[in-house]
Prior knowledge:
By secondary structure, the protein is α+β, with helices and mostly antiparallel strands. The chain has one domain. Helix content is 42%, strand content 10%. The chain has helices at residues 2-14, 20-70, 88-94; strands at residues 109-112, 119-123, 135-138, 144-145, 168-169. Strands 4-3-2-1-5 form a five-stranded antiparallel sheet, covered by helices on one side. The longest helix is centred in the N-terminal third of the chain and has 51 residues, at 20-70. The radius of gyration is 29 Å and the shape is elongated. The model has no long low-confidence stretch (mean pLDDT 83). Residues 40-131 form the Type II secretion system protein GspG C-terminal domain.
Amino acid sequence: MQSLLKRVHNVSRNEKGFTLVELIVVVAIIAILTAVLLPKLLGYTDNARESRAKGDLASMKSVVEAYAADQGNGKYPAAGNSGTPGTIGQVLSEHGIKTPTDPWGNSYYYAVSTDQSSYVILSKGKGGAGAAETIYVTGSTSPKKGDPNPSATGSTPAPGYPSDGTLAPIQ
């Protein structure tokens, strides 16, 4: 019996493995790397979402411009949902853009002037509010980030911004 215990004791001594201290050091290194890299990776995610929103807006602008040239007699689509002919929702739907949502899960917004000669399509950005996060496109601009209508600050609106239009979600 005693020889059996000696054998078990010797076998357990000869086994290779990691000590608790080694495991704690590895976990600490992984935690430090995560703390350093995670903010950088989240920044890339935000940039990718912003780029996707700009791409979506460029696609919608192409559809709206084509509509005005082909079917609208030089007028942009009216605001409204996809069930009504001649509205932004219906025009986008006809061209394969069904109830668009921005990369943050919010609606895109559309406003057109009363004479239908200018428009803006926008995403309210990451927070869903706040002019600094807004990404927009007008008939006269490419997709941009910023406030398309900074009239509250006394600045000039973006070229082509319909100052008499009311923003409504695209449905």
